[in-house]
Structure formats: structure tokens, C-alpha cells
Amino acid sequence: MRMLGLGIREAELEEQFILGSGKGGQKVNKTSSCVYLCHRPTGLAVKCGRTRSRELNRFLARRELCDRLEARQRGQDSAQQQLIAKIRRQKRRRSRRQKERLLAEKRRHAIKKAQRREPGPEE
Question: pTM here?
Fold first, then answer.
């Protein structure tokens, strides 16, 4: 139903089954349960081998394809791309000036807290 809403027809899809890899043991490595799905008009390709079941992988691949096509049509980054960008920003090193400002703010805060303390017996 969602595929029809986005204008994806089954005839436009190129589907291949390839050998899976990763978790799942010997069964996954012996069977062609991994699904490769390509939407010819847009050139979007999806590869899904999350589960050991071919049918479930077919469903998940189609869902992923719909998500990507929807994000492309809306002109927005997908949720996954936004998450990757957020993590990249968090890991990025701060500039020297930014570090100095941060440390200066910490020092000011420490002085403020020290002034709130009650005077001890030695003071």
C-alpha cells in the first residue's frame, strides 16, 4: 500500500537473492537469504540481510526502499543520516578558542560556588 502511494510498482524493482554473512551461523552462510533490491527509475538500491528468513528480508528491504524514496522526495535527510550527523558533531574536536572559553566558564563557576561555602574554622 505504501509502495503504491510513493509510485513504486513491483515491475520497476529488480530483486536478487545473495548469500548472507555475519551473525546466524552456518545456516546464513549456506542460504541465499540476503535480499538486494534496486528501483530502476530512481537508481536507489537496498541490501537487507538482517534476519535468517528470506521473506522477512524481502519485506524489510521494501520498507527501507520506501523510507529512502520518501526522504528523497521530501528533500530532507533521513532519520539515520541525521543521527550520523549528530554523532559526527559530538565527536568533532573543539577549536582552541572554544576550549579556552569553556575552561574560563568553568573557572568562573568554581569561584561562584566557592563563595557560597560557609567559612571554616581556619578562615
Answer: 0.58
